[in-house]
Amino acid sequence: MERGTEIRASTVQALPFWKRKTFQTYLGQTLVFLIAFLGGIAFFVPFFWAVSSSVKLDSQLFVDPPIWIPNTIQLQNYPEALSAIPFARYYLNTAIITGTSMIGDVVVSTLVAYGFARMRFVGRDTLFMVLLATMMLPMQVTMIPQFIIYRSLGWINTFLPLIVPSFFGSAFYIFLLRQFFLGIPLDLEDAARIDGASSLHVLWYVFVPLSLTAMATVAIFSFMQHWQDFFLPLIYLNSNDMKTVSLGLQMFRSDFSTDWNHMMAASVMATIPPLLLFFFAQRFFISGIVMTGLKE
């Protein structure tokens, strides 16, 4: 009897892979791939149209039927668009704000998340719940008090209101890193403490190397948030040489409202840094999202 069972099992294993799968499995996978393909097309088409419009002549923009690939590629639209207003200065301002804020978000959120995940102190869970409650507070509630504070400190028309809050941590980033830290085995921390490591040593030599994917995810989120931020720079930055890329695009749209090919060229240039970041850090981003646990 056992020999007959083994023969049938070996026969099933010898079948080709496509014959073992059921029709329902193939149908489900086909639907998933089809939905993913349609979603990718829905996101790709507008970007492709923007790139195509950025290298067109004015006469090719609003024609019927539309021209997806122009016969004559006008690459000079890019230097003309970037020289119309000081985009180089705006790129530098945005890079300073984004890079500094990203460092603050990653470093401070890592320290606070480690404290909530591994340290035991009175009121830890209560403080964590209060931290999570701040995520439900609309920005419109704190906008005016923050503006009054920054004005009294003389920070208006400086980068400080856009950078300093990142060095006080972000509730979402702290939550994300804390959940990742909870999934790290306690045995690793106990072994380090037996060797005489302090809390900071445990964080630096044990948790940080194991959490690079989660920290990279936080860095990507922070970069995207600060690079495309429009509302806060609009409030705190007044002079022209302090503006960011988002404000520069709005100025370009106001001054050259009918110059759509140059507008698209400037928009594509503003989109390239986030695209490059996500392209090169995609593996870390996906791994950080997948591996981040949601357990206590």
Chart the SSEs and their pairings.
Elements (H helix, E strand, L loop, with lengths): L1 H13 L2 H4 L2 H32 L22 H8 L2 H32 L5 H10 L5 H14 L7 H4 L7 H12 L3 H9 L4 H12 L1 H16 L3 H6 L8 H11 L4 H21 L1 H10 L5
Helix pairs in contact: 3-15, 4-15, 5-9, 5-12, 10-11, 12-16, 14-15
Describe the 3D structure:
With 296 residues, the chain is mainly alpha-helical. It folds into 2 domains: 2-54; 79-291, Orthogonal Bundle (MetI-like fold), CATH 1.10.3720.10. It is built from 16 helices and no strands. The longest helix has 32 residues, at 23-54.
Describe the structure using short key phrases.
2 domains, disordered N terminus, globular, 296 residues, mainly alpha, MetI-like fold, single chain
CA-based shape: globular
Low-confidence stretches: 1-9
- CATH architecture verdict of the largest domain: Orthogonal Bundle
Going by CATH, the homologous superfamily of the largest domain would be: MetI-like
Proportion of residues in β-strands: under 5%
Q: Gyration radius, to the nearest Å? A: 26 Å
